[in-house]
Amino acid sequence: MMFQTIHHVALNVTDYDRSREFYVNLLGFEVLGEYVFPSGTRRLDCRQGDTRLEIFCSAVPLQKPAAPVVGYRHLCFFTDNIHNAVAELHARGIETEQIRPDPMAGGLMTFFYDPDGLQLELHE
Predict the structure, then answer these.
(1) In order of start, what are the domains of the chain with their CATH numbers?
(2) How many distinct helices (H) and strands (E) make up the chain?
(3) In CA terms, which of 72, 97, 100, 104 is 20 to 30 Å from 62?
(4) Computed from CA positions of residues 11, 89, 50, 20, in that sequence, does the dihedral angle turn out positive or negative?
């Protein structure tokens, strides 16, 4: 079995509208579809370039586990110009950590957070 790429990443969020605003209107993801399951759980499918996200908001309130947990640690987006990308995030009111070298993978990196506090990384 050979995996060629990751098809999508699925995220659980606590507030559908707030997360939709963040990922679509602030980060610029294109909406592919929106669904409501019989349980009341809502799902947003979106993409930007080759990055596809499925964002789920349960009808039953979710609790964010205390970090660290086994599983998802962060989601990393590649950019060809981290300085411009960070400037765009700041212009949209999204704070980032300081840009710094990535000693393991090379290049530059920084972190920022979605409305639920999920850690997102930018890497150049």
Answers:
(1) 1-61 (3.10.180.10), 72-124 (3.10.180.10)
(2) 2, 8
(3) 97
(4) positive
For the chain, what percent of residues have pLDDT higher than 90? 74
Please give the helix or strand (H or E) that residue 40 lies within, else none: none
Confirm if 34 and 42 have CB atoms less than 8 A apart. yes
Integer CA distances (angstroms), 5 to 9, 15, 51, in order: 11, 29, 10
pLDDT given for residue 59 in this prediction = 87
Q: What CA–CA distance (Å, rounded) separates 38 from 26?
A: 29
108 CA to centre of own chain? 18
Per residue in 33-69, pLDDT tens? 999 999 999 999 999 999 999 999 988 877 766 666 6
- Tell me whether the omega of the peptide bond preceding residue 68 falls within 30 degrees of 0, making it cis: yes
Looking at residue 65, its pLDDT comes to 66
Beta-bridge mates of residue 120:
75, 112
